[in-house]
Design goal:
The complex is a heterodimer of chains A (about 375) and B (about 325).
Chain A: H1 7-34, H2 38-43, E1 53-60, E2 68-70, E3 73-79, E4 88-93, E5 102-103, E6 107-109, E7 115-118, E8 123-128, E9 139-146, H3 153-161, H4 164-195, H5 201-211, H6 217-234, H7 241-265, H8 269-277, H9 282-293, H10 295-311, H11 314-319, H12 329-339, H13 344-379
Antiparallel strand pairs in A: 1-9, 2-3, 3-8, 4-5, 4-9, 6-7, 7-8
Helix pairs in contact in A: 1-13, 3-13, 4-7, 4-10, 5-7, 7-10, 7-13, 8-9, 10-13, 12-13
Chain B: H1 3-34, H2 39-72, H3 86-93, H4 95-128, H5 132-140, H6 147-157, H7 170-177, H8 191-216, H9 221-229, H10 234-245, H11 247-262, H12 266-271, H13 281-290, H14 296-328
């Protein structure tokens, strides 16, 4: 590799860096946010969580029931924090008007002559000559330094309570067959388009090419009607997993066939001729020769179709019910977006969960993914 | 549904097709063993076995629906009575429809152009830099994310809190730190469309980038070297050699993104549901498919409008396909 340290190279690097930062920041923010404490998430930007932040909070001391008496002096002792998150108190106050009137360790004298001291770790001591009478404790305002703190609580909540776990399984149950079925039937189809001679082959090929660009919106209403009629006729649910598998098969059929046809066309003709001479039937040729040779193409197409089905929203909305046993991830996420509009801990975590599988595929099989996209575009 | 019944449904669904092909071909082989008098007959039966499932699916899910949708666009909301051009007239007078057409045109103009532009620029940058592959991966990554997921990501960026509150949306935080007023970005008419388009550009630039990167490798190195020796600036090389070389690729990417943009639904549905003047055809169609029990007539008109948008591309693709077929023969 040649390193050229000239002005234009530095400029290109900076420009590229700018694009990279611009492109990664949104996703990065989501990832960070999904691990943040939900109270902090609601009041501060995610970028503040990477460094120590100052937070202002209100806490309450214990009431009269907790007091103890030592040498005629009454004490209430305790810790302001319910759990230790490593916060360090900088200052505190006893009225809302002046929330950081006292430094940590300083004695605050209240109107009734009692004294409160708050320490850095949240411990406090409230000391009075007279017996404490109030059942409720006193409000203490603190300003504390909070270290970056990350938690898996949001994931627990979203997966088990908000129902995303089930939606995740549903999406797998939709995506796997909706990817494998078109792959199976289209590979036979593409084979016959490439290697078999039959009447109307060219018209069929042209139809596939035309179907490549037909928007799936054109199909929604008629297919929904067919499904409803079939459902009424056989007294079954009109919205079902097999229904959406076949819908996805239909919508992915043209592109899958086209890509496979493009690939099979490029296979060496001699090999297939030789098989024919040996007396192999088309089925044998297909299973023994074409399938093994087509594995890379299958991998690319599998990834493209799987990602498309996994990320689809419209088909899932139209052909599946919205109740928990059928709803898919994207539809669930949209539902959360409506009902938990401001609960960012649920939304960010949910979005990230829905992205795990695509991102895993993306990073482990990027080569095949790109190959599929390029094959689909440079040619088509 | 429990975990195991889900798994078994999936396995049964997939096995069904494997068994179909395996069994029917097995039976055919068996029959031919005993009556091997006609190879031609065997081949045509096999062709039917191979083609039938895909063709039935193609017919039921694409071909029939296309004609049915066109037919339904002339019928009433239940698809029973012929109403002539009424649905089309309704569309022309519907303010939401007109807004959708305008917005779709805006999307069509801006998103493919900017995605292609950014993709081209970044592809050229990554080509020359040693950490280009990593950069490419990062910019390509949004392609793997669903539109709804991307919607959540960007809604978080556009989040708005009242003046004086701490902004948790990145965009408003930046705006406030520059001393300006925070804005509820998604509700500002007309401009909010641009904020929605930004999401699509963010996603599709990756597509353009990887395809351009692949195409750039096809430029002969000698041509570039010769130009450099002649003292051409990098900018000049970009304009006079790279762009003309990539002309076809640019066109292809542009059409792919155009088709995608015509159908844009998820982003609008998840972010604004067409409010604040962000309506687009696909979202309006979804709305009419289910609003008040569904109106198949109006829904079909809207679907057909999307179809009209792709017809030029369809014709062009078919034309190119014919040219290629001719060249091969």
């Amino acid at each position: 590799m040649k390193f050229k340290l000239n002005l234009s190279s530095i400029f290109s690097q900076l420009l590229l860096l700018f694009f990279v930062i611009l492109w990664i920041t949104p996703t990065f923010g989501l990832l960070i946010s999904s691990f943040r404490d939900k109270d902090q998430l609601a009041i501060s930007g995610w970028w503040t969580s990477l460094i120590n932040t100052e937070v202002s909070e209100i806490h309450r001391t214990k009431g009269k029931n907790e007091q103890s008496k030592e040498n005629e002096v009454y004490f209430i002792r305790g810790n302001l924090f319910k759990e230790d998150k490593g916060k360090k108190i900088l200052s505190f106050g006893v009225t809302s008007k002046n929330i950081n009137a006292y430094m940590v360790g300083e004695k605050a004298v209240l109107k009734d002559k009692s004294e409160i001291v708050v320490f850095e770790n949240g411990d406090y001591e409230w000391r009075s000559e007279n017996e404490f009478k109030k059942k409720k404790g006193r409000r203490i305002f603190i300003t504390a330094k909070s270290p970056p703190s990350f938690t898996l609580d949001n994931y627990k909540e979203v997966l088990f309570e908000a129902g995303l776990g089930q939606a995740f399984l549903n999406t797998i149950a939709v995506a796997l067959p909706a990817t494998l079925i078109p792959l199976i039937i289209c590979s036979f189809f593409a084979y016959s388009l490439t290697w078999m001679n039959f009447f109307g082959r060219d018209i069929l090929l042209a139809t596939i090419i035309a179907s490549l660009v037909v928007p799936l919106q054109m199909s929604l209403i008629p297919i929904l009607t067919i499904y409803n009629d079939l459902g009424a006729l056989f007294n079954i649910e009109a919205k079902s997993f097999p229904g959406i598998w076949m819908a996805h098969t239909g919508f992915g059929l043209a592109s899958t066939t086209f890509l496979l046809w493009n690939f099979m066309k490029s296979l060496p003709n001699e090999m297939l001729e030789a098989a024919k001479v040996d007396g192999a039937s088309h089925y044998d040729t297909f299973v023994r020769i074409v399938i093994p040779l087509s594995i890379p193409a299958f991998a690319s197409i599998f990834i493209l179709q799987f990602l498309w089905v996994w990320n689809d929203l419209l088909v899932g909305l139209v052909f599946l019910d919205k109740h928990p046993s059928e709803i898919i991830l994207t539809a669930k996420l949209k539902e959360l977006l409506g009902s938990y509009g401001e609960n960012w801990e649920i939304l960010t975590t949910g979005a990230f969960i829905s992205m795990t599988v695509p991102l895993f595929i993306f990073f482990s099989l990027q080569r095949f993914f790109i190959r599929g996209l390029v094959a689909g575009s440079v040619k088509g | 549904m429990s975990f195991f019944s889900l798994i078994s449904t999936v396995i049964v669904g997939v096995l069904f097709f494997v068994i179909y092909f395996g069994l029917s071909n097995f039976i055919l082989d068996l029959v031919c063993k005993f009556k091997s008098n006609s190879v031609a007959l065997e081949n045509s039966v096999r062709a039917i076995i191979f083609i039938a499932p895909a063709f039935l699916v193609l017919f039921m899910f694409i071909l029939y629906p296309v004609f049915e949708t066109v037919r339904l666009s002339f019928y009433d909301k239940f698809g029973r009575e012929f109403v002539g051009w009424n649905n089309y007239l309704w569309a022309l007078n519907d303010p939401n429809f007109r807004r959708s057409i305008l917005n779709n045109l805006g999307w069509l103009l801006i998103v493919p152009t900017l995605s292609t532009f950014f993709g081209l620029v970044i592809a050229n940058l990554t080509d020359k830099i040693w950490w280009g592959t990593i950069a490419k991966s990062i910019i390509f990554m949004p392609m793997a994310i669903s539109f709804v997921g991307a919607g959540v990501i960007w809604k978080f960026i556009y989040d708005y809190r009242g003046t004086g509150d701490q902004q948790i949306g990145l965009l408003n935080a930046i705006v406030v730190s520059l001393g300006m007023e925070p804005q509820a970005w998604l509700t500002i008419s007309i401009w909010n469309n641009l904020f929605l388009m930004a999401i699509m550009i963010w996603i599709q630039t990756g597509l353009a980038l990887v395809i351009f990167s692949a195409a750039l490798r096809g430029i002969p190195n000698e041509t570039l070297e010769a130009a450099r020796i002649d003292g051409a600036s990098e900018f000049r090389i970009f304009w006079s050699i790279i762009i003309p070389f990539l002309e076809r690729t640019i066109l292809v990417i542009w059409t792919i993104i155009t088709i995608l943009v015509l159908k844009v639904f998820d982003i609008i549905y998840a972010m604004t549901n067409g409010e604040w003047q962000t309506e687009v055809l696909a979202n309006l169609m979804y709305d009419w498919m289910f609003r008040g029990g569904g109106d198949s007539g109006r829904g079909s008109v809207l679907a057909f409008c999307i179809m009209i948008g792709v017809i030029p591309i369809l014709v062009w693709n078919l034309y190119r396909h014919r040219q290629e077929q001719k060249n091969e023969i």
